[in-house]
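Fill in residues.
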């Protein structure tokens, strides 16, 4: 049996200490670190010369900073490096949070917060490994399971339109997303109406401290008011509440948002399953679940409850997903009422929600 080739990664950070920390973490996770850069120009040169499978990128660097690197890749000013997926590794502050969210909009694959002194390094190592692994696989041909010993290309699952007309009853909306979610939300949310169903809750997997910047960015371009949940808010058709990174978003007394610092589930806090279950139990058939791009299976368990109680489920099609993980789990379980390309989801959500 052939030995699997290790994924090759370039690490870019102006701090020598962080280059060593990130490089060591990646090597422990089975990657080959083929280059380390102290600034953006060096990072682009290494990508052009070494053609890595992925790159980790600090945003605050001298000369060409991380945002400059992302724009160069997006604008194809360095063609050999344009297909290198980037995982941003950033410290948190209000300014860094906003820049990290901007980086995701500029094409970064995902975001990992630099380890805090109070947090175990093992958490950072595991999260970094998972996200770089997904990034490295994201621009390769998607393969189906082996048939007669040979891997074959997987055909994307065709979109499936809603199976029946939407109810006129206003539904509570839950939107769940992970990897690729900030970019998907940036396309989706501005196209939704100023009043949506009975109110909207959003769960996006992001590190603590970064979701406030995401909510502010989405709010600036959307008709809905979008804000990070603080707890105590009542569901409002004109407002979408975003779960804060580091807290579970619950719904109590039928309509009131509550934040919980209960332990992470499957390394996730917020966990979409918890939010979805609360809404399904409170609203029953008046629940609309929307699952966008993301790694893993968060949302699947609660989606079963949504269906059991008569709610509706829309998922993003593989054709527009950055990572077809969360939507795929629901689609393959036969729980989706519709599988739609991202560009077709806003109209479907507005119709189903009863805006």
């Amino acid at each position: 049996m052939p030995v699997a080739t290790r994924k090759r990664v370039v690490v870019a950070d102006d701090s020598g200490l962080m280059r060593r920390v990130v490089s060591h973490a990646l090597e422990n996770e089975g990657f080959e670190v083929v280059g380390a850069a102290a600034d953006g120009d060096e990072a682009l040169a290494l990508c052009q010369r070494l053609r890595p499978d992925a790159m980790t990128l600090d945003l605050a660097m001298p000369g060409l900073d991380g945002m400059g690197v992302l724009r160069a890749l997006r604008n194809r000013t360095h063609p050999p490096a344009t297909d290198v997926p980037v995982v941003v590794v950033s410290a948190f502050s209000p300014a860094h949070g906003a820049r990290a969210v901007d980086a995701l909009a500029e094409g970064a694959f995902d975001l990992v917060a630099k380890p805090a002194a109070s947090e175990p390094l093992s958490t950072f190592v595991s999260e970094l490994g998972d996200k770089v692994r997904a990034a490295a696989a994201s621009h390769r041909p998607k393969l189906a399971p082996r048939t007669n010993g040979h891997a074959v290309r997987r055909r994307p699952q065709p979109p499936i339109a809603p199976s029946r007309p939407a109810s006129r009853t206003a539904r509570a909306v839950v939107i769940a997303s992970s990897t690729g979610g900030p970019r998907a939300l940036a396309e989706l949310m501005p196209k939704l109406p100023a009043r949506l169903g009975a109110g909207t809750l959003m769960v996006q997997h992001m590190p603590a401290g970064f979701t406030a910047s995401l909510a502010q960015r989405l709010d600036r371009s959307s008709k809905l008011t979008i804000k990070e949940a603080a707890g105590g808010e009542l569901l409002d058709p004109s407002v979408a509440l975003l779960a804060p990174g580091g807290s579970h978003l619950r719904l109590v007394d039928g309509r009131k948002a509550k934040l919980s610092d209960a332990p992470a589930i499957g390394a996730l806090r917020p966990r979409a399953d918890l939010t979805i279950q609360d809404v399904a139990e409170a609203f029953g058939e008046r629940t609309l679940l929307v699952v966008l791009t993301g790694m893993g299976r968060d949302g699947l368990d609660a989606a079963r409850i949504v269906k059991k109680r008569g709610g509706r489920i829309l998922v993003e099609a593989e054709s527009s997903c950055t990572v077809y993980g969360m939507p795929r789990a629901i689609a393959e379980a036969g729980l989706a009422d519709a599988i739609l390309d991202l560009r077709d989801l806003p109209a479907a959500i507005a119709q189903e929600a009863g805006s």
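Residues 140-156 have pLDDT under 50 and may be disordered.
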